[in-house]
């Protein structure tokens, strides 16, 4: 659902959110790819409580919104975002005591930072997450994972605000995780992640750090630095999107200042002031080439956010 700038009720939003409302804000600087137009209305939220209050207010006003955390795994339209953007800056993190190796964190907390804090406390289970950009909330929505681990394997309970049912605590089965998705991703606009508790395990700090260093070294070797959205496509069963795009001869292909990485075919880079429309053109080129040569339809892992033409 899209709401045009002409009918977005800024006066009602100002009454609800006061100085936390920022109209006409460029979204690009809040995304990992540094791409995208402006949001008609952005609201800063600094805690799980503020996020819940903001979501409830917007549902009451019947206004569509998106929750923006680390800004990875998304491509924001050059035309910008007509929904209200909730900039999730909630970041509290609490670890359990010696007898309870767990960590609770608000949904805006950095997943990589949580993993590194856990390592310093001799708590393992998140070694795979050390190099993953983005927030805990986004990782839950997309069931983020790497190196054989993912969120569904460590989730204890997630605090969810459901549009119809209010505040709930959901376990992994409730979230119906699949490869790089969850019930939340399949039902946009129906619920918001407020916080989550993850189950960890006691281990020697040096062993945790050694494993993290191995994963990070592999990441640096195989994934490009610079501004990108992360993995563009989901891996098809039994294959990898990067391999297919490389085999189709598209590594290094450039449109404007957007480029399919010469290092890894499933990473699309912003070489400097790239436009979303150029990234999208590369997406379409990759899909067409892989479909034509291998008969495989690549499925986006990222989300298209903002005002896109119907053909997009």
Tag the structure with descriptive keywords.
four-stranded mixed sheet, Uridine Diphospho-n-acetylenolpyruvylglucosamine Reductase, domain 3, alpha+beta, Uridine Diphospho-n-acetylenolpyruvylglucosamine Reductase, domain 2, 10 helices, 312 residues, 3 domains, single chain, Uridine Diphospho-n-acetylenolpyruvylglucosamine Reductase, domain 1
The first-level CATH class name of the largest domain: Alpha Beta
The whole-angstrom Rg is: 20 Å
**Global geometry:** globular
Report the order of strands and helices.
HEEHEEEEEHEHEEHEEHHEEHEHEEEHE
Oligomer: single chain
Give the helix level as a range of percent.
25-40%
The count of strands amounts to 19
Treating each run of at least 4 consecutive H or I residues as one helix, how many helices?
A: 10
Major sheet size, sense and barrel closure: 5 strands, antiparallel
CATH topology annotation of the largest domain: Uridine Diphospho-n-acetylenolpyruvylglucosamine Reductase, domain 3
- End-to-end CA span: 15 Å
Question: What is the topology, as strand order, of the major beta sheet?
Answer: 6-7-13-11-12
Sheet-strand content, in percent, reads 25-35%
Topology:
Blueprint: H1 10-17, E1 21-26, E2 38-45, H2 48-60, E3 65-68, E4 74-76, E5 81-88, E6 93-95, E7 102-106, H3 111-120, E8 123-124, H4 136-141, E9 145-146, E10 149-150, H5 151-154, E11 155-162, E12 166-170, H6 172-175, H7 183-186, E13 191-199, E14 201-202, H8 205-222, E15 227-231, H9 241-247, E16 254-255, E17 258-260, E18 267-270, H10 276-294, E19 303-305
